[in-house]
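Collaborator request, handled under Task 6.
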Amino acid sequence: MLDRPAAAKPARLATKQMFSMFVTPMFTGMLPDIGLCDRIETKLREIQKSGRGSPSPGGMILAYMTPDDLQTLLEMKELVDVVMAEAASILDVYAVHRDSHYVSNMWANIANPNRRHNFHIHPNCLLSGLVYIKVPKNCGATIFASPRLHAKNLEPDYYKMNEFNADIFSLPPEKGRMLIWPSDLPTARLNVR
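C-alpha cells returned to the collaborator:
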C-alpha cells in the first residue's frame, strides 16, 4: 500500500480585518421622564377632540393623525427639547457640519386595533424618529427593512439570522422609548391587536 501525504490545510490570510461598510445606525433610548408620555397623550387627545388633524379616509376608524406642526406647540416643548438634543448628538456622530438643526415636521398617530402602516420612507429629511407614548397590550411593533433588500440576487439558506443577513429589524414597543434612524430606511408598523 502506498503512503499518501497528509492533506494540507488550506492557506489562510494573515492580519485579517473586517470592515462594516455603509452602516445603517438605529439610535434608541428612554425618555428621562416617563410621565411626559401621559402629559403628551392628554394634549394629543385634546387636539383630536378639537377636530384638527386627519381621521382615517372614508370614515374608517383605524387611525387618527394630528396636524404635522406639533413641534410648534408649547405643550410639546419638553419632548421637542429631548428630540433636538438627541438629534444634535446623532448629527455629531455623522459629523454633519451645521450652525443649527431643526424639526421640519412632527405629528402623532393614534392607531386603533388592526391598524397597519405599510412600508414607507420620509423624503427630504435626514433623520426620522418616533416615541412610543402609549403601548397597549399586544401592541404591534415598528419594523425596519434593509435598504439593501432589493439588491439581493441570490438568497441562500441561513442556519442562523444575524445583523449581517437579516432583512428586517424590530424592537419591542415600550412606553417612553425613542427611536431615531436615517429617513431613507423603509419603515412599517405591524397590526395593533
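The cover message to the collaborator said: "Strands lie at 27-30, 54-55, 63-65, 109-111, 117-120, 127-131, 142-145, 168-171, 177-182, 187-189. Residues 27-189 form a domain with the Jelly Rolls fold (CATH 2.60.120.620). Please let us know whether this matches your experimental observations."
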